[in-house]
Amino acid sequence: MGDIRITMLGSQASGKTCYMLGMYNRMQIGLNGFTMSMDDLDESLRLEQLWFKLIEGGEDRWPMLTNSATTYELSLNYGFLPMMTFSWLDYRGGALGAYSSDADKQALVQSLVDSKCIFLTVSGDLLRDGLMRSANVKQLELKQMNSLVTMAMQQIKPTLERPFPLVILITKYDLCASRGMDAIVNEIRQFFTAAFAQGKTLTAIIPVSLGKELADHQFTGAIEVINMHLPVVYAVWSQFMDKNTVKQGELQSSAAALREREAHKNLLAFFRSSDIVHQRDTVRALEAEASEIAHNMQLLVKELKDVQVYRGGERVEI
Amino acid sequence: MKSNWSPVVYGRTLDVDFRFLALPAGGAWSEPYILASMSLAEQLPERPRWLLTQTAEQRLVGVTCMARDLVGRDDQQIRDAHSRPLYLFVGYLTTTRAADGGFAAGPAYPTQANLPPQQALAAFAPLYQYVRDHWDEQIPQPPNQVAASAPTFAEADRAKTPKGGAADEWALNTERETRALWPDGVRERQALWAAAQGQAGVVSLCLGLARQRDALDSPFLNATVADVKAPVRERLAQTQPASQQAPTKAAAAPAHGRVVERSAAGASLPPVIAIRAIYDGRWLQDFVATLRQRQLYPTFGSQRKEAGSTFARFQQSGPDRLIYMFTRAHPSLLFDLDTDAAKTRMQQEGLMEPQVNPLDVRDLSGGSAAHNVADVIDFFTLPSRAQFTNPLDAVRDGFGGFVKGLSGQSKKEPRRDDF
């Protein structure tokens, strides 16, 4: 099981499996020192084969319809060293609107409430003509996504100090790119109001695409992945940010405890000297951990400089 | 003999996801088999998977294949609204028995090698009509329940074995803890299909799975598999004596779990299986898959998160038994289940959130508390909860007994069962 779980909510044909394929294969090659790997070599090979088929093109280039849930265990590495591992559930989009007795729906719900980051997937296909079209809203399964995220948040209980990271992932961006990112973002904000309503979520809007030519040439267009790594990098960064918040809190209380012990050491110097030494060690260890977290955050945040992140409705710099 | 068969079709249509499109009453047991036959669907083109599976009452025969291999590439209804090629299961289900007590034989496996898929699957092609009937649905409608009829199958090939093959060579496995796997050759397909057709008791067979791991994860007791080079019979799990399993967290995490039977034989009340586990994600998946193979469907009752581990609880919703997955993050729980001291210790050590009751005994009486999950320890079959006047006794008996067993103080060696 990975350090964290990431769950991608998306309706049928929203591009979940393709995103997984694109993200994994792009990151296997590596980007700015970051790579992605999988312990299960059989599954890794399988994803590679599916990717080659996608690159080759033709009528059968796209992955088969997903009909059951599969969890992948992935690792984001920097300089060949694992930075964070994560579990990723791929499932059939129909599960989103299925009854709770459905096994895949149960797997999805389980994954969701266990997640450290949730991706809400919007297909560029639906954004091309605008989400206002009722058929598109239905296909997006917006109500189901909202219900599931609400349920997850009730369990996760994010706070202002520890906001929960969400990604609104626009797949197949090539299909709606002609509208411009500003128009897309405005529409997303109108339809996903809950994700922008309060400061307890940290919401990134990230467009991704497998290639610009695919909008016009579904079976022959060249594969040229765009932004595929960003959602996962954001998820991992936000996890480090959360760890940093916790660690800083621990550090502050440990440092305060040390100061208190040192202030009173004259009174009980004999009895408390070992206690103070122990407390100093604790503070040093926490400082080292906080430093490593900060280092990882610095590495990751460089990749995220162009990502639009919102908190409480306001765009924020990360 | 006139045999009566009802159609079973599982697939998706233009806009609506996978579901049963035709299903007779009482046929839902087939779903895990159908889903398993769809694993690694990218390997399906021109390689249909034939499956035969039967309970004591019903026989299902059918194929999982690409729609285009069934009805031809020129058909207008073989891709979904997003141009993705469709695949599906089409088959027949019968309750008809022959004079010798065996089931009526289904469509024969083609005797001619390298027959084009559309010809090989001709007996099933009429069933595509049920896909067409549901094709334009926007909201899924219930599956067709069609009265059993007598399709014109080719002459059955039951009890035949190919030349040069001894009957033993094609003996089908009927043990649920074993998987018999063969190479996926024409000879094997023909012989095994014939053998399965002649089988009277419970059996299951899938021809053409892609990987050995898929076959082992599936409920099929027998399969031909593309990456199997020679016939092999695999036990699903290795039994590990309790004495060899240390009680510590570090030594736990066996490759497979064990079921320790503790309930009285012949007890009239349904047993409770309490499963305690320290969570290993991959193992848990395998475990859930195994439960499903046994047609036990755990529902995710409740779960929570805490630093370093995950809470989870499974509660099986079937009528004959209850399954709970109990988990722990600290050995003290085993001894101090009901004491505030244990909870306080865990809170102090950062092993749980203060508001969470780690092992609330209400769970044994249908409560909804969540539990820490950290590592695999063991499974137990406890006597029915109803046999305990005090639910706490159930916890003490099962969990306390486990602790004694591990430390060599158990009075009675538990009977083990492979899982």
Estimated structural class of chain A: alpha/beta
* Largest interface summary: A-B, 35 and 39 residues
Q: Strand content of the residues of chain A, in percent?
A: 15-25%
Low-confidence stretches of chain A: none
Q: Provide the helix percentage of chain A.
A: 40-55%
Q: Which strand-content bin applies to the residues of chain B? A: 15-25%
| Rg of chain B | 25 Å
Tally of alpha and pi helices of chain B: 10
Task: Give structural notes.
- The complex is a heterodimer of chains A (318) and B (419).
- Chain A is an alpha/beta fold.
- Helix content of chain A is 46%, strand content 19%.
- Chain A is built from nine helices and nine strands.
- Chain A has a nine-stranded mixed β-sheet with strand order 2-3-4-1-5-6-7-8-9, with helices on both faces.
- In chain A, helix 8 (230-263) packs antiparallel against helix 9.
- The longest helix of chain A is centred in the last third of the chain and has 34 residues, at 230-263.
- Helices cover 20% and strands 23% of the residues of chain B.
- In chain B, a hairpin with a 7-residue loop joins strand 1 (5-11) and strand 2 (19-22).
- Chain B has helices at 31-37, 67-71, 117-120, 129-134, 186-197, 212-217, 281-293, 332-335, 340-348, 391-406, and strands at residues 5-11, 19-22, 49-54, 59-66, 87-94, 178-183, 203-209, 222-225, 232-235, 258-261, 272-277, 298-302, 305-306, 309-311, 313-316, 322-327, 372-373, 378-382, 415-418.
- In chain B, the strands form four sheets. Chain B has a nine-stranded mixed β-sheet, with helices on both faces. In chain B, strands 16-11-18-10-19 form a five-stranded mixed β-sheet, covered by helices on one side. In chain B, strands 13-14-17 form a three-stranded antiparallel β-sheet, with no helix packed on it.
- Chain B has 419 residues and is of the alpha+beta class.
- The longest helix of chain B is centred in the last third of the chain and has 16 residues, at 391-406.
- At the A-B interface, helix 2 and helix 3 of A face helix 7 of B.
